[in-house]
Amino acid sequence: MTSPHKLTQRTAFRLAGFVALIITLTNVLIFAILFFVISQQLGQHLKAHVDEVRGTLVDVQGDESDGFRELAAAVGRHAFVAQSDEDIYLLTDREGKYVSGNVKSLERFEGWRTIPWNDLNLVGQWPSARASDAVVGTWTPVKGGYLFVGDGNGDIKDAQRLLLTGLLWGIALSVICALGGGYLIGLKAQRRVEEMEQVLDAVALGDFQRRIPRNAASDDIDHVAALINVTLDRLQRLIGNLKQVSVDIAHDLRTPISRMRQKLETIQSGPCDIATYKAAVDQSISEIDSIADTFDALLRISEIESGAQKAKFVDVELNSLLANIIDALEAVAEERHHRLYAPSAPARPVIVRGDRRLLNQLFVNLIENSILHCPPASEIKVELHNDAQQPIVRVRDTGPGIPATEREKVFRRLYRLEKSRTTRGSGLGLSLVAAIAELHSAKVTLADNKPGLVVEVMFDEVPRVD
């Protein structure tokens, strides 16, 4: 079971927290904009209402001589019912003395002003509980004095409280959803990671058959699982090859070492002349050279498989490379009464990126394989094609071929079709071919030539030639 402490350290959960922070900041920004815009709009509505009431009262005064007295009466009537609407009225004479209204006195000022309730000298008993905390109003000159009309900012405060409540709920729900979703996603991801850890632990203990189960979601974790499985497949093959190579090396070394020991024991047990000793030494040196060649080939294959040679890749023209190889091996083929030839190659140069020396070794090995294993009077044909901008080289012979069940095995190191291992050879020729081909991103396949064998080497797309 995944512990909460371990889960909170996971990237998915931390990402959810980061998303929650972004959502919170976004909500705060939206709230700030709405708060400012709505407050401004409600302030304008409040001022418009005050202007409307003020205009109505000023119209009461009219042009009559007793208009000021009628204005005072109207102000008194409005002030009498103003408490429930939080309206403020004050009419003074020219000296600023109280005439009518629901406040005793108020400093005169220009324009609009917001006045806290505590700064107002109210007339009568006003309820202490109000929706507003201040009054927004302005002074207006009238005949015989000055008129102040104001209104409480309760609607503005109500809207601001509503926005603030909505913000807090929005932030709370966003954070809860983000963290909850992050927890669930992190929990699922953690379970997948634990599956990977279990498989890798099992592989570390020697169970190379274990693989990470795939997920139908095909997400990034599933992609990593697929890469790990591919790596484990390759590791299993390499370890299997290593075990097979160890066994094959033991078999290959035992035969020449046994032959050397028998010869040396024979010479040691009986009288021999110098010529016999010399012949035994020569044979032993030949056996030792064969063993050294085997180890040199193994080291070379390992060096090629490491991929370090790719730094030396250049453009290699296959037309001239194959022509030179055929010219060099034609005499060897004729000695064994074979016919080695190449049909007409493509007119344009066929170029691949690679190491010319290694590619030369690859095709020499393939052609020599046919020369050595085909019976006399066989035909060996080397073809070069450029199908769909993919260079393909095929070596066809009319020899005994390779059984279909053995075609994959012959690329293994030290694998030989001749199980007794009495004939000369190390079984590394095709292993070297496979290593060089893989280094050049080429694919080597074996097929039936009916009769004989056809070996196909298919390279990646031809590089552009300007």
Descriptive notes:
The structure is a single chain. The protein has nine helices and twelve strands. It is of the alpha+beta class and 466 residues long. The strands form three sheets. Strands 2-1-5-4-3 form a five-stranded antiparallel β-sheet. The longest helix has 51 residues. It starts with a helix and ends in an 8-residue tail after the last strand.
The total number of structural domains is 3
CATH topology of the largest domain: Beta-Lactamase
Number of helices: 9
Strand arrangement within the widest β-sheet reads 2-1-5-4-3
CATH architectural name of the largest domain: 2-Layer Sandwich
Shape: rod-shaped
Supply the CATH class of the largest domain. Alpha Beta
Largest sheet, if any? 5 strands, antiparallel
Strand content: 15-25%
SSE-based structural type: alpha+beta
**Kindly, what is the distance between the CA atoms of the first and last residues, rounded to a whole number of angstroms?**
62 Å
In N-to-C order, the SSE pattern is HHHEEEEEHHHEHEEHEEHEE
Total number of β-strand segments? 12
Gyration radius (Cα, Å) is 49 Å
Percent of residues in helices comes to 40-55%
Which stretches are poorly predicted, pLDDT < 50 over at least 5 residues? none
Average pLDDT reading: 81
CATH level 4 superfamily of the largest domain: PAS domain
